[in-house]
C-alpha cells in the first residue's frame, strides 16, 4: 500500500508543480518586466477555477465509461498531458503578449484554459482513484502523504526554477518551464505504472451530481451554514488573492531579481509545511477554532508586515511577513478543513462538501480578480505602482480581520449534533485545498 500511496503522491506532485512557475515566475515577468495589466494576468489565472464545476461531470463520466478497462488512469493521463502542455507553452504567451496584446491574450486564454481543463480532469480522477485504492481506514493517511509530497514538490520546484532563471533571459525562462514540464511528465508516468487494477468487465457506479443551485439551497436552509460559507469565502479570498501579486511586489518594492522572487514560493511553502505538521499534532488536543484563530492572527500580522515593508522599503520586514503568512496559512488550512468536515449533516454530506468546495472556488475567483483589478485601478489613479500593491494587501488584511470576527460566531454545535463525517469525505475535501 505504501508504494501505491507514494505513486498517488507522485501524480499529485506532477500536476501541482506545473502551476508553480506560472504562479511564481511568469506572473512576475508579465507584470513587472513586460508591464502587462495585473487584471489581465488575474483573468488568465482564474481560468482553471472557472472550469472547476466540470469535475462533477468528469467524475461521473469516468465512473461509467472506462477506457481499455481502466476508469481513472486514461483520464489522469489526459489531464496530465494538458497540464504539461500548458506549462511548456506558457512562456510563449508572455513573449507574444509583449509583442501583440490581442493575439497574446487569445493564446493565453487557450493555453491557460488547457491547463485548467487538464487540472480538473486529472485531479478528480486521481483523487477518486486514491479513495478507491486506500479503503475506508486508509484514505486519511493517503491524503496526508499526497499533501506533504505536494508541498515538498512545490518547494523544490520553486528553488529549481529560481536557479534556472538566474540571470533572467527569455531563453532561461523558456528552458526552466520546459524542465518543469518534463519533470512533471516523468513523475506522473511513474506514478501511473501498475497503479490501477484493470476491470474484468465494465462497471457502473452511482455518482452524486449536485448542481450549484442545490448546493446554495442547502446552505440557505441553515443560518450557521450561510454564515460559515461567507466566512470561508472572505478568509480564502485573502489567503489566495495574494498569490499573483507577492512576487511582482517584491520586484517593485525591493528591485528583487526573478531568481529571488521565485524563491518566495519556497519560503512560503516551507513555513506552510511546518505549521501543517504542527496543526496535525494539535488536532484533538486543542479546539479547532482556537487553532483557526491562531492561523488567522498570524496571517493578519503577515499581511500587515508586508504592507509595512512597502512603506519602509525594508526587505527584512517583507520576508518576516512572508514567513508569518505561510505559517498562518498552514494552521488555517488544517483547522478550517476540520471545521468544514464538522459543518455537515449525515443526510446531506455530499451536498455540504460540494458547497464548501464551491466556497473555495468562489473565493479564488474573487481574491484573484480583486487583486488584479484593484492593483491596476489604484496604480492608474495614483501613478504609483507601489500604492496599488499596498492597497491590495491592506484590503486582504481587512478581509482576515473580518473573518476573525466572524469565526467567533461560528458554532458547530448549533449547526450539527450528529456524528462526524467519514474519512471518505475528508479525503475528497482535502483535495480542493
Fold and architecture overview:
The chain is mainly alpha-helical and 433 residues long. The chain folds into two domains: 1-197, Growth Hormone, Chain: A; 210-433, MFS general substrate transporter like domains (Growth Hormone, Chain: A). Helices cover 81% and strands 0% of the residues. The protein has helices spanning 2-17, 20-33, 38-45, 47-50, 54-64, 73-99, 101-134, 139-164, 170-192, 212-220, 223-241, 246-254, 258-282, 288-312, 315-342, 349-382, 385-407, 412-415, 423-432. α2 crosses α13, α8 (139-164) packs antiparallel against α13 and α16 (349-382) packs parallel to α19. It is globular and about 60 Å long. The two termini are 24 Å apart.
In a nutshell, what does this entry contain?
81% of the residues lie in helices and 0% in strands.
Shape: globular
Number of helical stretches of at least 4 residues = 19
What is the correct CATH architecture of the largest domain?
Up-down Bundle
Unreliable stretches, pLDDT < 50, 5 or more residues? 202-207, 417-433
Cα gyration radius (Å)? 21 Å
Tell me which oligomeric state these chains represent. Answer: single chain
Mean pLDDT: 83
Order of helices and strands: HHHHHHHHHHHHHHHHHHH
Amino acid at each position: 500500500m505504501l508504494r501505491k500511496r507514494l505513486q498517488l503522491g507522485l501524480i499529485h506532485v506532477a500536476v501541482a508543480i506545473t502551476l508553480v512557475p506560472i504562479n511564481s515566475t511568469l506572473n512576475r515577468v508579465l507584470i513587472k518586466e513586460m508591464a502587462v495589466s495585473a487584471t489581465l494576468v488575474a483573468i488568465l489565472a482564474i481560468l482553471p477555477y472557472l472550469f472547476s464545476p466540470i469535475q462533477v461531470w468528469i467524475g461521473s463520466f469516468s465512473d461509467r465509461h472506462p477506457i481499455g478497462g481502466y476508469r481513472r488512469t486514461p483520464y489522469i493521463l489526459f489531464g496530465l498531458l494538458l497540464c504539461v502542455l500548458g506549462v511548456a507553452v506558457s512562456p510563449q504567451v508572455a513573449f507574444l503578449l509583449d509583442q501583440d496584446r490581442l493575439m497574446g491574450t487569445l493564446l493565453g486564454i487557450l493555453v491557460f484554459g488547457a491547463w485548467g481543463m487538464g487540472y480538473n480532469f486529472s485531479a478528480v480522477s486521481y483523487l477518486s482513484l486514491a479513495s478507491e485504492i486506500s479503503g475506508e481506514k486508509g484514505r486519511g493517511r493517503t491524503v496526508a502523504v499526497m499533501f506533504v509530497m505536494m508541498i515538498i514538490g512545490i518547494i523544490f520546484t520553486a528553488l529549481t526554477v529560481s536557479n534556472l532563471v538566474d540571470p533572467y533571459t527569455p531563453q532561461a525562462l523558456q528552458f526552466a518551464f520546459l524542465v518543469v514540464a518534463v519533470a512533471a511528465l516523468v513523475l506522473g508516468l511513474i506514478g501511473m505504472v501498475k497503479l490501477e487494477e484493470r476491470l474484468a468487465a465494465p462497471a457502473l457506479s452511482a455518482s452524486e451530481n449536485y448542481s450549484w443551485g442545490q448546493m446554495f439551497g442547502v446552505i440557505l436552509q441553515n443560518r450557521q451554514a450561510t454564515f460559515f460559507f461567507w466566512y470561508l469565502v472572505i478568509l480564502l479570498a485573502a489567503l489566495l488573492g495574494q498569490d499573483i501579486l507577492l512576487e511582482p511586489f517584491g520586484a517593485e518594492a525591493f528591485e528583487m531579481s526573478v531568481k529571488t522572487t521565485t524563491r518566495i514560493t519556497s519560503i512560503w511553502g516551507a513555513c506552510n509545511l511546518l505549521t501543517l505538521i504542527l496543526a496535525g499534532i494539535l488536532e484533538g488536543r486543542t479546539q479547532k477554532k482556537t487553532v483557526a484563530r491562531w492561523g488567522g492572527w498570524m496571517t493578519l500580522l503577515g499581511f500587515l508586515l508586508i504592507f509595512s515593508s512597502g512603506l519602509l522599503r525594508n526587505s527584512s520586514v517583507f520576508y518576516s511577513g512572508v514567513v508569518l503568512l505561510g505559517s498562518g496559512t498552514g494552521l488555517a488550512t488544517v483547522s478550517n478543513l476540520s471545521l468544514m468536515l464538522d459543518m455537515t449533516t449525515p443526510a446531506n454530506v455530499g451536498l455540504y462538501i460540494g458547497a464548501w468546495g464551491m466556497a473555495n472556488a468562489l473565493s479564488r475567483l474573487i481574491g484573484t480578480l480583486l487583486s488584479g483589478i484593484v492593483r491596476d485601478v489604484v496604480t492608474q489613479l495614483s501613478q504609483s505602482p507601489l500604492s496599488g500593491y499596498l492597497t491590495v494587501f491592506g484590503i486582504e488584511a481587512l478581509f482576515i480581520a473580518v473573518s476573525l470576527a466572524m469565526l467567533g460566531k461560528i458554532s458547530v454545535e448549533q449547526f450539527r449534533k450528529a456524528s462526524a463525517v467519514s474519512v471518505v469525505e475528508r479525503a475528497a475535501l482535502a483535495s480542493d485545498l
